[in-house]
Amino acid sequence: MNVSWMIAYQTIVKKEFVRFARIWIQTILPSVITIFLYITIFGNFIGDRIGNIKNFSYVDYIIPGLILMPIITNSYMNVVGSFYSSRFQKSCEELLVAPVPNWVILLGYISGGVLRAFVVSIAVYFVTTLFTKMPIHNIYFVILITFLTAFLFSTAGFINAAYAKSFDDINIVPTFILAPLTYLGGTFYSIDALPQIWQDISLVNPIAYIVSSYRYAFLGLEETNILLAVLIIVTFIIILFIIALIILAKGIGIKN
Amino acid sequence: MKNAVDIVKLNKIYRNGFRALENINLSIKKGDFFAFLGPNGAGKSTVIGIMSSLVRITSGKVSVFGKDIQDNPDFAKRNIGLVPQEYNLNQFIPIQEIMINVAGYFGINKHDAKYRASKLFHQLGIWEKRFDTPRELSGGMKRRLMIARALIHKPKILILDEPTAGVDTELRLTMWDFFQEINNNGVTIILTTHYLEEAERLCKNLAIIHKGSIIQNSSMDEVYNLRKEHTYIIKTANIINQKLNISEFSHKLIDAHTIEVTVDNNISITQIIEKLKYLDVNVMNIISKRNRLEELFMELTKEEPIT
């Protein structure tokens, strides 16, 4: 990356960081409150009645998935919100008239989403420590899965933002696709406990692999082939990244 | 010497099938102050969009300082500064931050960006507003901010798409002086405007685009010589009740103190006044009905009556 591109990349990332940090009450705090409520209600009130799952208390079992939920939504919403807003205000033209390669623009926005995901996940993790002493089986793997998940959903958010024609359109995917996939991805239960048909359906849900990987990273619990899970996530990233680059090259949503 | 911009057989058809440009050919000299005129929807903004990489080319070629913009997009982008017609500012961040960000996209570090922004803000009179967001600025200030933003990377070509729209007269005059100054410093300026006196006052050469085609491309002097006739409005001291007996030029009475006369270009104002004086008409003042560029523009872009 030459110096000029490096400065451009840093500028986009810094702009994105300042944007979500400036409105932290809207971007960081809601996830913290939501997770606090989830752990209080599901982890404590309901979890005590459920008992242990695979030798872990229910609250410990669901926490990796609970941390993952805001990582997914925050990385996605950061990029879709920011990029669509810049399209809406036409301020994205500032980038389009500058000599910034498409991949630098894309990486800049994705990095903003990844950064927000890390900030939120750290905040959420500290909330979980109020309820339980959460084990971390492999910190590097936690960081890797956090990064890959955030990267994947930031890229998806970028694609959504390019096609969105109104602010309503940026909420369709999170509401009707991401939320069901997350809830059906084994966040609150073990997929093994589902009837066979639902276990088979879960095989095509990428979020199920991410939850399993994250659970392994925290608890050391190998519910699926971890290497395969990582490969699936990376494959999705490559596919979506290429699609996003094609969108930028064709100028979909940004050029006439 | 290479031209600042060369456009050859440029065509643009939008996705909805609308043909915005048809075989446009245009050359703009280095250092020129060039007026690019046309009625609404004629294709001006499409040409500007293509030059600035915001609109894709259907066919044809656009070169900036001899380099094809499709083969060398970064070269073109580094050399062009764009002041768009519509506000395209991030409404939520301070204007100094906008300048630093845009400079960053051009690879300019924060220190240099701050210095350049400060200089431009002082020149354009918005220094005091540097910590305000665009939504806190007046229309004129937003226009000046967009001019400053377009100049942050020191482009050699500045494209001004209706830069003084909605700006009061005093500010417009100040902006004209500013544009003239940067043109004198060697920056090629391409101006689109609906204020034809603005083009007449500032520009050396012009092109008129109508329905996607260039219908006039010449120097301002040539434009002045194109018109064979000129129309004046004359205010008289005495009352005129009947049509005057004048054979040298056509005229009509507007009211008892006003006559509209149309004369060939070779008849001087002195001759008109003398003729009227001979008919006992005392002239109080005399003004052009339209400026010459306006007359030509109206003539060239006149719509055919709908039948």
User: How helix-rich are the residues of chain A, as a percent range?
Assistant: over 70%
Average per-residue pLDDT of chain B, rounded, comes to 88
Q: Strand sequence of the main sheet of chain B, in spatial order?
A: 6-7-8-3-9-10
Approximate strand percentage of chain B: 25-35%
Total number of beta strands of chain B: 14
SS strand fraction of chain A = under 5%
Most extensive chain contact? Answer: A-B, 26 and 36 residues
* CATH architecture level-2 label of the largest domain in chain B: 3-Layer(aba) Sandwich
Uncertain segments of chain A are none
* Oligomer type: heterodimer
Summed up, the helix count of chain A is: 11
In N-to-C order, the SSE pattern of chain B is EEEHEEHEHHHEHEHEEHEEEHEH
Radius of gyration of chain B: 23 Å
Put simply, the count of helices of chain B is 10
Per the principal axes of the C-alpha atoms, what is the gross shape of chain A? globular
Walkthrough of the structure:
The complex is a heterodimer of chains A (256) and B (307). Chain A has 256 residues and is mainly α. In chain A, 76% of the residues lie in helices and 2% in strands. Chain A has one domain. Chain A contains 11 helices and 2 strands. Chain A has a two-stranded antiparallel sheet. In chain A, helix 3 (29-50) runs antiparallel to helix 4 (58-88), helix 3 crosses helix 6 (102-128) and helix 4 runs antiparallel to helix 8 (169-183). Chain B is an alpha/beta fold. In chain B, 34% of the residues lie in helices and 28% in strands. Chain B contains 10 helices and 14 strands. In chain B, the strands form 3 sheets. In chain B, strands 6-7-8-3-9-10 form a 6-stranded mixed β-sheet, sandwiched between helices. The mean pLDDT of chain B is 88. Chains A and B meet through helix 1 and helix 5 of A and helix 2 and helix 3 of B.
